[in-house]
Amino acid sequence: MNILVINAGSSSLKYQLFQMEEGNILAKGRVERIGMETAILTHEPTGKAEVHEVREILEHTTAIRKVLELLVHPEHGVLASTSEIDAVGHRVVHGGESFKSSVLVNDEVKKEIKRLFDLAPLHNPAHMLGISAVEANMPGVPQAVVFDTAFHQSMPAHAYLYPVPMALYRKHKVRRYGFHGTSHNYVSERAAAFLGRPLEQLKLVTCHIGNGASCAAIMGGKSVDTSMGMTPLEGLMMGTRSGDLDPAIVPYAMGKEDLTLGEISSMLNKHSGLQAISGISSDMREIVEALEAGDKNAALAFEMYEYRLRKYIGAYVAAMNGVDAIVFTAGVGENSELLRQTVCERLTFLGVEFDEEANRKGRGLERRISKQGSKVEVLVIPTNEEWVIARDTFGLIQSQNIRLELSKIDFSHGNRNSVQ
Ligand SMILES: Nc1ncnc2c1ncn2[C@@H]1O[C@H](COP(=O)(O)OP(=O)(O)O)[C@@H](O)[C@H]1O
Ligand SMILES: CC(=O)OP(=O)(O)O
Ligand SMILES: [Mg+2]
């Protein structure tokens, strides 16, 4: 079964085409800077030359059409026709309280994703465009959605409620949902396998540090707390997002700077974080380069980023009354040696014994960066959200096929016999 996975972000679209039974990736790629005249398209068909293009791609529908064209392209393609795609799986960032696991797309599911536009304005509208574009270009192909929020639905009320009047929760569902759940779930399972210990017995702090970043406290394989909140703005300092701040700053800054709600929201989501403090970039690679060249603002941005991350790790160890392993993943977590080193060298009180040499080796691999015998293990586990989405989609399609097969069998015969 060939499954196409689409991860549509606010301004980007990542994709991977899996051949499930064989466990092969036929192609993967991404379209970045959607909405601009200079969108960047990268297509990596397995066993063939990569394609790089800079071209105008103004919306997600065009991006998906372009991806489908490339998948069947005579030179760069990997399929003879899009009819060889059996199902499509999508990442959906916000599933609210309605979705505790992945589901096949139907009218009800689409209605609910649209209802949640307000709570994830940068993400959910893009996902809906992705679903509609597949419907338009590949009518009848089953689609599944895998929610960032689903894994965190196991959080207890004392972790997901905010200390504000309960009417806000009852009437408007104001609560912590948490995001990156597919990734936290995946790396926690992989961490248990790596350690050779049952997940049910482990206390883990997983750190998904990408452009968006969040930590999770995972006990016995279940998320018990996570740093992102009702929206993906709360928690850690990120590339362009502020993370935690005193809520009183919002009305104060609006008054002083004469800002509208849209403007303050844009400031906190798109013009804060590493970008705002460094004045250089939202990209950790450029921050590290600048601080190594002696830039003071870059050094301050890094210090704040690391400090806030370390505080969350400490908080989650307290929340679980212990920790077996700390796991780093996603773009920064997997690639920034300096961030991992700085965090780990300041967690000696927990019993972390950091292995500097191991930290420098094995990029792209699952690995241990604490010393043998360290009381708390530290692991780097590359995330693979696309694979989890493909796996869930495959499972849903198979169980639907079993239901369809069962529905063809005439059980009434047996029933009649037993009654007679
Ligand atoms: N070698 C590296 N060193 C430090 N940071 C890196 C490196 N490679 C990638 N990154 C960081 O990873 C981020 C992207 O992470 P990713 O998980 O792909 O984020 P997202 O899925 O939110 O786009 C980039 O913004 C960049 O800061
Ligand atoms: C939920 C979220 O913040 O996702 P991303 O990191 O892809 O922006
Ligand atoms: Mg991501």
From TrEMBL:
One of its GO terms (molecular function) is kinase activity. It comes from the Bacteria. The keyword DNA repair does not apply. The keyword Transferase applies. Keywords: ATP-binding, Cytoplasm, Kinase, Magnesium, Metal-binding, Nucleotide-binding, Transferase. Catalyzes the formation of acetyl phosphate from acetate and ATP. Can also catalyze the reverse reaction. This is Acetate kinase. It comes from Paenibacillus alginolyticus.
